[in-house]
Amino acid sequence: MLSRELALDEARKQKEALAEIGGWRRFLFLLSASLAAVAVFGFQLEGWLALGIAAAAAAAVSLLLAFIVDLSIRNGRRNVERILESLR
User: Fold this and answer.
1) How far from chain centre, in Å, is Cα 46?
2) How confident is the model at residue 7 (pLDDT cuts 50, 70, 90)?
3) CA dist., res. 2 & res. 48, Å (int)
4) Whole-number pLDDT of residue 88
5) What does the alpha-carbon distance between residue 37 and residue 52 come to, in Å, rounded to a whole number?
6) Tens-digit pLDDT profile for residues 37-84
7) CA quadruple 51, 65, 15, 2: dihedral positive or negative?
8) Residue 2 has what pLDDT?
9) Helix 49-86 and helix 4-44, axial crossing angle in degrees, nearest 10
10) What is the pLDDT of residues 38-47, one digit of tens each?
11) Interatomic CA distance for residues 16 and 80, integer angstroms
């Protein structure tokens, strides 16, 4: 079992890491939205079908990564709550 000070320090560090990961989640959502717009542009213009397909695939991958990052944030928050709960 961690001492109270170590547990509080660990919870603080994890909250800081979660805030940084939140920035990555925001970036991935913005990237997927931008790539989706490029995909629509590529599908609508003649001769740009390859761009549309590549952008749609990249948008799907970035959206999947955003969901994975979101899941890790939720799990990290639960972990911090457990640490703080153990101190009561």
Assistant:
1) 34
2) confident
3) 58
4) 82
5) 9
6) 999 999 999 999 999 999 999 999 999 999 999 999 999 999 999 999
7) negative
8) 66
9) 160
10) 999 999 999 9
11) 11
User: What is the widest separation between alpha-carbon atoms in the chain?
Assistant: 65
- Number of residues in the chain: 88
Selection from 47, 48, 52, 25 nearest residue 37 by Cα:
52
What six digits make up the tokens of 74? Answer: 């939720």
Q: Where are the alpha helices (DSSP H) in 1-88?
A: 4-44, 49-86
Q: What is the spatial distance between Cα 21 and Cα 37, in angstroms, rounded to a whole number?
A: 25
- The first and second tokens of residue 43, run together, are 């599908």
* Gap between the Cα atoms of 85 and 32, Å rounded: 36
Q: What is the pLDDT of residue 87?
A: 86
Q: How far apart are CA 48 and CA 9, in angstroms?
A: 53
CA 72, distance to chain mean position in Å, is 8
